[in-house]
User: What shape does this take?
Amino acid sequence: MVTKILARFILWLFGWNVKMVIPPLKKYVIIIAPHTSNLDFFIGKLANWSCGQKCKTLVKKEAFKFFVAPIIRMWGGVPIDRKDTVNIVDQVTKYFKENEEFVLGITPEGTRKLNPEWKTGFYRIALNAQVPIYFGYIDFGTKKVGMHDFLMPTGNMEKEIAEIKAYYKDMKGYRQNQFAV
Assistant: This one.
């Protein structure tokens, strides 16, 4: 409860408005865009905490060492073997199948740099795990952070990713020239 109140206060203090519609589901993927700065992680985490949402993020397994591992886990970090890039979708799908509750936040651009060709891992994970993809956003243009619409992937990846990108077309990242859909 204290975490929720503190997170809401910090977001309010910096002028952010949270518009989260938390689904009554226990498993889903949230894509978060635009992703142009490290600030996105902190604003997104505060928004999740302010709504009581427990969202996981993928972190390279090499980061889980010594005293840092418990902190990463506390913040929702899930270890992933990035060397096995072919198998990342399978690794994450396994997390969905092994856990009763699993909400994964992932940036579709895969980088903070300009990347109009989004990575497709988020889509393939949701398709394999048979979970919906919710559209999360951190819009620096309006100072709104939230999650509203969703899509249940059908396998028509090209068409559905184009629909998802259209949702984000008017949103602004912290570094506006680093985001393109």
